[in-house]
Design a protein that fits this description.
heterodimer; A: mainly alpha; Cytochrome Bc1 Complex, Chain D, domain 2; two-stranded antiparallel sheet; 12 helices; 2 strands; flat; B: alpha+beta; Rieske Iron-sulfur Protein; 13 strands
């Protein structure tokens, strides 16, 4: 360790050591938290699909939701939630939960599409509920009306999800997630099933056609370019004003110091 | 000061006078002065280039080019160069001027002594005499008609600004206490204006509703601001209401004014799991199962509940108007 003792008094040693320690910590954490799952390849046959789903459920879900979907102290009953609910919760990675925080966060899905379909088929086979939606069944690009969608969004969604779909805070650590980058079918499933804190938006209150318009508006908001580069969270003039005020005042202080310094 | 000097007396401060004038390099060395002149010139030329960049990006640059900048991410080139051009153009004019003043303009210290503010005694006496002579010549004391009519004219003209206060608007009358909800008004979706049947709402569903418009009427923003209502369906067993309030619900469907009783924001952040309604402005939290009782935040009273009933065709209607004014407190409101 001659090398370290030679350089340890250098002024760069401290920061370099810190960076190295953080790097080691970060990589070892990601290695430690990586998980592997047995790949399941269910066939299209419905009975085998349900059987596969039952097996996955018993292995991955039953410890909280119960062997017969009856729920428990820490998890709700899944009887009658339907395939749409399973497809949303598992397909967006919210279930299985990573930890027991107040709200399941969106993350990379743990089960692949085939496994999710099997789980959904199993849960739906025990009690009826809303069916899962396929992206190709949602003709939002053709049938949606972005202007109508915007009106619906402002009156029904924007109070929680922010007027630009960026998400926002609810009470006691809960939050409405950002809608950017969410698949169309997951938006639709969330509307009809009301996951977690979100209420249900029934088909008679917001018709299926109106739901497509909402999806079209969200996709339009998503593809809107940021002319100024950083979007600052698209939360409106407060963040923008705060940032330009802070940077501006620093620049003005600098200029004031320079003006009042006497020339040599 | 020596160590054997134990006295606490401090020698009085003497006026140090003005410090000696330090000459700048450019005052002494003509070469340095020439260099400073060139620097000022360069700063002005940079400003001119900035203006040219501004004109170029305004006139010729496409709006579709995006360039990547670290920290900022993808930014629109036209907007970026418009801003940069104008900033450079203005900033470097100022920078050149300041540099010019600091290095080349005269920097001699100038002493200007203060003088007394009070005028000379002679001038003061002169002024008093002029005023007195003028007043005597005008004869205000003798000509009483002029004195009185002037008084009337000045007094009346002073009233005009008071009269204009009337233009602050017609008095609100009972607009604060009344909404468009009447007994039998149908609840319709917002937007869409479709009437609602109880079967349209599942458990856990919400609907943003407004009163149905009479034929030929248009929806006004100032009406929506008072009429907006949130319809929520929960399991009837979860209600903890008194008999009267329970009779205002229908099979687990309950309706509240969406206008916060604190400052009038739209309260519609409904958490299905906790049955709490949250106001986004000041975090007032209302418990839906207990008739929107305030459980957190600055709001002083629950959200007004709208009594529900069914009409002959099975659509949801208001059983009666709101029994209290919706929205925030106002002076004449009976808050009991």
């Amino acid at each position: 360790m001659n090398f370290i003792s030679r350089y340890r008094r250098s002024k760069f040693f401290g920061p370099a050591l810190l960076a190295a320690a953080l790097f080691v910590l970060g990589t070892s954490y990601s290695v430690a938290s990586a998980t592997t799952f047995k790949a399941v390849t269910p066939s299209n046959d419905k009975t085998t699909l349900i059987a596969e789903g039952k097996e996955i459920f018993a292995r991955g879900c039953s410890s909280c939701h119960g062997l017969n979907l009856e729920g428990g102290a820490i998890a709700p009953s899944l009887i009658g939630v339907g395939a749409a609910s399973v497809d949303f919760q598992v397909g967006t990675g919210r279930m299985p939960m990573a930890d027991m925080s107040v709200q399941a966060a969106r993350k990379d899905p743990i089960y692949n599409e085939a496994e999710t379909a099997a789980l959904a088929a199993y849960v739906a086979s025990l009690a009826p509920g809303p069916a899962a939606i396929r992206n190709e069944d949602l003709a939002w690009e053709r049938s949606g009306d972005a202007a109508e969608g915007g009106q619906l969004f402002r009156s029904n969604c924007s109070m929680c999800h922010n007027f630009a779909g960026q998400g926002g805070a609810l009470s006691q650590g809960k939050y409405a997630p950002s809608l950017m980058g969410v698949e169309a079918k997951h938006i639709y499933e969330a509307l009809i099933t009301g996951p977690q804190s979100m209420p249900v938006f029934s088909d008679k209150i917001i018709t299926p056609a109106e739901k497509l318009s909402i999806i079209k508006w969200i996709k339009a908001a998503e593809s809107e370019p940021n002319l100024g580069g950083a979007s600052l969270g698209r939360t409106g003039p407060v963040t923008e004003g705060l940032l330009s005020w802070s940077l501006g005042i620093m620049a003005l202080i600098g200029v004031a110091v320079w003006i009042t310094a006497k020339a040599k | 000061m020596t160590s054997d000097n134990q006295s606490n007396e401090i020698a009085p401060l003497t006026d140090p006078g003005i410090p000696a004038h330090l000459h700048r390099k450019s005052d002494l060395d003509p070469k340095a002065a020439k260099k400073a002149e060139r620097q000022v010139g360069i700063l002005f030329i940079i400003s001119a280039l900035g203006t040219i960049l501004f004109i170029y990006s305004y006139t010729f640059m496409s709006e579709k080019i995006f360039i990547f900048l670290p920290v900022l991410g993808n930014s629109n080139a036209k907007q970026l160069f418009l801003g940069l051009g104008m900033a450079i153009s203005l900033f470097f004019i100022g920078m050149g001027a300041v540099h010019w003043a600091k290095t080349l303009m005269p920097d001699n210290e100038v002493v200007a002594q203060r003088h007394e503010l009070r005028s000379e005694e002679v001038d003061r006496e002169d002024f008093v005499k002029t005023v007195k002579e003028g007043a005597a010549a005008a004869g205000l004391g003798r000509r009483s008609i002029i004195k009185r009519t002037l008084g009337v004219a000045l007094g009346l003209s002073g009233l005009t600004p008071l009269l204009l206060l009337r233009d602050l608007g017609p008095l609100p009358k009972d607009d604060f206490s009344k909404t468009s909800w009447e007994a039998g008004t149908r609840l319709v979706t917002d937007p869409g204006d479709r009437p609602i049947k109880p079967s349209d709402l599942e458990i856990g569903a919400v609907a943003q509703v407004l009163p149905e418009l009479l034929a030929g009427k248009e929806r006004k923003l100032e009406d929506i601001g008072k009429d907006a209502v949130l319809l929520i369906r929960i399991r009837p067993a979860e209600f903890q209401l008194d008999a009267e309030r329970l009779s205002w619900t229908h099979e687990g469907i309950i309706a509240f004014s969406k206008i916060c009783s604190h400052m009038g924001c739209a309260v519609a952040l409904y958490e299905q799991t906790t049955k709490h309604l949250l106001c986004p402005c000041h975090q007032s939290t209302f418990d839906v199962t207990r008739a929107a009782k305030v459980i957190f935040g600055p709001s002083a009273r629950p959200l007004p509940q709208l009594a529900l009933a069914l009409d002959a065709e099975g659509y949801l209607v208001a059983k009666q108007p709101f029994t209290e004014p919706v929205g925030p407190s106002f002076w004449e409101r009976d808050s009991s």
